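re: that chain from earlier
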Amino acid sequence: MAATVFSGSDGTISVAVDAGVEGDKAKVVTDKYALTPIGRATGVTVRVTNDVRPFHELGQRFATELRPGNINVYGTIDRAFINGALLKLMLGDAADSRPAATFASPSFNLSLRLENPSQPGTHATVTVAGVKINEWNYACPEDEFVMESVSFRALWIKVEDAVV
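^ sequence. v structure.
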């Protein structure tokens, strides 16, 4: 099987929601702002870390065992289109006014699909599940594009590759 090379222009980013209170909050935003696909994204980073812990025996300089630890999924999205959608995906009900009590934070799945147009049917899809936005930034430079960026945390991730 030959390896396929992708570029960012081969990709699409879409948001999907699961049933439940947090998913319902995200669905309101994704429907209102048509976030499937997410438009004007200029960069997406997804990181997965495994907190590997070495075990060192007395008298040994090298580790004798490596134990897997917590797995963390997080990343960023950069976007050159400001309409409040990503901020609303972070704040939910608190994006329009200050709620009087506690409120549910929206949760969604992020799907990143890459397909090389010269090889139809060959694609790679990364699905990041249980995403919650934990930081939103807005940059308005004097002579560059206005950008927003978010960072997120997620519960888990899966990868699907298809070669036709």
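Residues 21-33 form the longest helix (13 residues).
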